[in-house]
Automatic annotation (TrEMBL):
Top-level division of the source organism's lineage: Eukaryota
Organism from which the protein derives: Salix viminalis
InterPro entries, per the entry: Glutamate_decarboxylase, PyrdxlP-dep_de-COase, PyrdxlP-dep_Trfase, PyrdxlP-dep_Trfase_major
UniProt cross-references to SUPFAM superfamilies, sorted A to Z: PLP-dependent transferases
Family: Belongs to the group II decarboxylase family.
EC number(s) on file: 4.1.1.15
GO molecular function, one term: glutamate decarboxylase activity
Modified residues (N6-(pyridoxal phosphate)lysine): K256
Classification via Pfam families: Pyridoxal_deC
Protein name: glutamate decarboxylase
Alphabetized UniProt keyword annotations: Calmodulin-binding, Lyase, Pyridoxal phosphate
Amino acid sequence: MALSKTALDTDVSVHSTFASRYVRASLPRFRMPENSIPKEAAYQIINDELMLDGNPRLNLASFVTTWMEPECDKLIMASVNKNYVDMDEYPVTTELQNRCVNMIAHLFNAPLGESETAVGVGTVGSSEAIMLAGLAFKRKWQNRRKAEGKPSDQPNIVTGANVQVCWEKFARYFEVELKEVKLREGYYVMDPEKAVEMMSKLLNDLLTEKNRETGWDTPIHVDAASGGFIAPFLYPDLEWDFRLPLVKSINVSGHKYGLVYAGIGWVIWRSKEDLPEELIFHINYLGADQPTFTLNFSKGSSQVIAQYYQLIRLGYEGYKNVMENCRDNMLVLKEGLELTGRFDIISKDSGVPLVAFSLKNNSTHNEFEVSDMLRRFGWIVPAYTMPPDAQHITVLRVVIREDFSRTLAERLVNDIQKVMHELENLPCKVCARILISGDGDKEQHGAVVVKKTALETQREITTIWRKFVMEKKKMNGVC
């Protein structure tokens, strides 16, 4: 959740043109009004402001689902007033969550017996799921260290530098040292050999050997937030899940390629032994024991019900079709960008359906400028620098969701070409601010100006343009 802040230099009141039919007085912007207003006015005021939000379907920065079938929308609205935590009041909703956990556990090849129940829980997203999985790892490690008579106050966790910020939050909030495996140009995932030295199938095998050599018992958690609902359908032979003995827990976002609106995630443990009992709270309702392990208390039931709808509505066949369509549309976009001759494709064809690309020539205009100008066409395409040690690489990224069709892919390529044509006819806004010497060092006003390398120049241009774009956003508010 973003921390609250107020816009600067704005009117302290909220005004609405059409709501004035119902109420003439303006409303205070940051304080509750003294009097009530008609429901029509409240609706109109809020609706008018929301028009300035971006179009979710054109938000290509996000993995989060932005479209569901009308039948599922009806189920969501019918259950929007149910508090999931009231298990005694809504036992069927609890049962649906348990079914989802077991379906996902089987999808991830959990080693369950014929009548064995999976161990897992629904969360508000992968961030909470990761916190829970991390806490389970930390508590189990502490218990083992205490039993061995060893210090248990300095746990650490190894991740790639490319992980989502929730891992940094977990490490900081729960006092765990975070060791990051840096990236390198051309290799933008965690290097398993480096990961093992600091503490996939290859990582499991290397870590098994390292545990054997050192006597450690280091486990693996798989952050499958985006890929957990992709790999089982597109790459069923890829061993990344509970088929690997060291994988003890997996999180996945139901609101990404689980195809549910924002607000649902899942974490699954390999077995009961991998979730310390002291972390579980037990609720007795309707004569049965209901274990619970969450950070949140109250939360809506709608997303749990929506996830169950998608699992039974689509089945294996349906999910496979959706993922194949996403992959096909990704290739359409990738090939269209390649045909322009202006971009290098950074992403791979396998894995999560997205296209990450960078300009072949960013000496005059860069990726941040392309991103900024695409907003004029309604597209939200983020530009960002790669994590350490590849931060000198800047990319644009388009996430291919179910609602991103071939037609939209073709239209996006056309709009990108329009942007590039416009940029070519504009003077360089950044280079004029940077002194780049010619061949050899030169002397100006008695001082020697050292020639910058191409890499140093690119990094400086990227830094200045990012600052320029952020300042522009602060001034404009909405593009």
